[in-house]
Amino acid sequence: MSTSFDPLKQGADAPILFSLEGHVAVLTLNRPATRNALSGEEMFRAFETIFDYMNQNTHVRASVLTGAGTAFCSGGNITEMKDKTGMFKGNPSEVANNYKNGIQRIPRAFQTLTVPMIAAVNGAALGAGNDLACMCDIRIASEKAVFAESFVKVGIIPGDGGCWLLPRVIGYAHAAQLALSGDSIDAHEALRIGLVTKVVASDTLLQEALALAQSIAKNPPQVLRWTKQLMQEAKGSSLDQALDRAGELQGLAHQTADHMEALNAFFEKRAPVFLGH
After folding, report:
1. Buried-most residue among 70, 75, 121, 156 (CB within 10 A)?
2. Cβ 108 vs Cβ 47: under 8 Å
3. Which residue ranges make up each domain of the chain?
4. What mean pLDDT is predicted for residues 238-267?
5. Is the pTM above the cut of 0.90?
6. Does 3.30.300.30 match the CATH number of domain 7-217?
7. What is the mean pLDDT of residues 241-246?
8. How high is the pLDDT of residue 5?
9. What pLDDT digit, counting tens, does each position of 168-202 carry?
10. Distance (Å, rounded) from C-alpha 31 to C-alpha 37?
11. CATH number of 221-268
12. pLDDT in tens, 25-34
């Protein structure tokens, strides 16, 4: 998909704010009035266009996703749900189609994203917000973060792919407990069950996430993308298929200038300079 997204022309009212810290992209959900609910064509399209931009620009080597205000993401828009408007309008067939053409575009966009993504969960990650965090490769939580696969609490199922995403992050039993109870857990429980890899003070969350992203971004950009691609593909492949695919991409990796730069830097005892080819 081609895109006209230009980070230099982005307005302050954009649904997702985009900035660059060196080779690291910072994406901030920018709907604090709704606690960054995932709602509306503008929001869905923003994920697609920003990801497409990142995929096309190897200058971007890692990324961080966080939320403006006190919440990471509150999930679906509860007011629209109650009023049967927006994505929740219509008969069962129409609602299914609304989901396909609406919020389900977000996990599909994540499946195409080649750049490693870290979720910096600054507050509540509820329902689809919890699943959004699971779409990222790595999750770091503020000590104030709260997580819930809370769909059952409002009488619906995880319509955004949560039943596929969550078990792959924390295993079936933990995922079943969260999804069937709808109960919330704090950041330390999320750490215990493997939903996040680290819990930090709220005022250092973004700094910690950027430090991790920058440590990733020091590596060759194309190899980072291939490594992420292999991990994504392995979710649905056999060992033999994964090995065959690894061989294909390894063959390409050995031919890159960055590979030779890494070897030369190792033997010359200096920091490598990677150019993405």
Report:
1. 121
2. no
3. 7-217, 221-268
4. 96
5. yes
6. no
7. 96
8. 74
9. 999 999 999 999 999 999 999 999 999 999 999 99
10. 7
11. 1.10.12
12. 999 999 999 9
The phi and psi torsions of 101 (rounded to 5 degrees) equal -90, 5
CA distance 134 to 158: 13
User: What is the pLDDT, as a whole number, of residue 10?
Assistant: 82
Look at residue 264 and tell me whether its pLDDT is greater than 70. Answer: yes
